[in-house]
Amino acid sequence: MPDPVPAPAPGVLRLVLDAETSAVPLARHWSSEVCTRRGLSADALGVLQLLVTEAVANAVEHGRGPITVEIACPAADGVAGPVRVTVHDTEPRLPVLRHVGAMATGGRGVALIDQLATGWGVREERGAGKAVWFEVAPGTTWPEV
């Protein structure tokens, strides 16, 4: 049995979900509720919701449960810093950044995270799968298309 995910650091909020499709909207709504109170612009909140949706959907489709979503919303001197979201699952295979054709019906999750997040990465969790993290800065805006 994998090691349990360690307790979150102070100021980090955690949601643990089963690896089922219902986890995706639950994580999206929870993260939106948490981050609405953190001073994110409407655009930044929209980006965060999209990226949470993609990261959790990838964990459901390609990973194994349970899925743990952590959100850290730091502030210094009353100014909100970037929001960091980390999605843990117990599957050791790491995600792959792919570029798919315009007509593909999937395969864009990591590419969206790569394009829209202020920063992102993935780390192996010793004996317990992986964690995909990304950050969204408070002033993030949707890119022009």
From TrEMBL:
UniProt keywords (A-Z) are:
Kinase, Serine/threonine-protein kinase, Transferase
Q: Which superkingdom heads the taxonomic lineage of this protein's source? A: Bacteria
- Classification via Pfam families: HATPase_c_2
Task: Using the record's annotation, list all stretches that form the Histidine kinase/HSP90-like ATPase domain.
Answer: 19-134
Record's InterPro entries? Anti-sigma-factor_SerPK, HATPase_C_sf, HATPase_dom
Asked if the keyword Kinase belongs to this entry, the reply reads yes
Please name the PANTHER family in this protein's record. Answer: ANTI-SIGMA-F FACTOR RSBW (PTHR35526:SF3), ANTI-SIGMA-F FACTOR RSBW-RELATED (PTHR35526)
Full protein name: Anti-sigma regulatory factor (Ser/Thr protein kinase)
